[in-house]
Design goal:
The chain folds into two domains: 70 residues, no CATH class; 30 residues. A five-stranded antiparallel sheet has the order 2-3-9-5-6, with no helix packed on it. Strands 1-4-8-7 form a four-stranded antiparallel sheet, with no helix packed on it. It is elongated. It has 115 residues and is of the alpha+beta class. A hairpin with a 2-residue loop joins strand 5 and strand 6. The longest helix is centred in the last third of the chain and has 24 residues. It is 21% helix and 40% strand. It contains one helix and nine strands, in the order βββββββββα. The mean pLDDT is 93.
């Protein structure tokens, strides 16, 4: 197996004129002297949400496939979260499926079919 490494890969988080301290892939602390834009090399797709100092902020498309958010001057804590589209409906379907299974199990036990 060969593993290739780029000699100078782009940083995962980047904000011109700012000091970016990543906490993990979904969080960073940023210190900016002036307003800036934070670019994140994560796929831009529905379901991503971002907060700056706890306040929701819109995510824009950057370089066709990546994410970008606006940053104010000063110190900011950035957090990204992902919830796939329609996931709330999937949780609801899981709940109904579990209830149906439980109902059928109880009904089978009362009829003496399950031992």
């Amino acid at each position: 197996m060969r593993i290739f490494e780029l000699p100078a890969p782009a940083p995962y988080f980047d904000a011109p004129g700012c000091t970016v301290t990543p906490k993990d892939r979904d969080a960073a602390h940023v210190q900016c002297d002036a307003p800036s834009k934070l670019s994140r090399l994560e796929l831009f797709m529905p379901g991503w949400r971002a907060t700056v100092n706890g306040n929701d902020t819109p995510i824009a498309r950057n370089a066709e496939v990546f994410q970008q958010i606006e940053l104010p001057a000063g110190s900011s804590d950035i957090q990204f979260r992902f919830l796939p589209m329609h996931m709330k409906w999937a949780y609801l379907a899981l709940l109904f499926g579990g209830l149906a299974f439980g109902f059928d199990l109880v009904r089978g036990c009362r009829a003496g079919k399950v031992r």
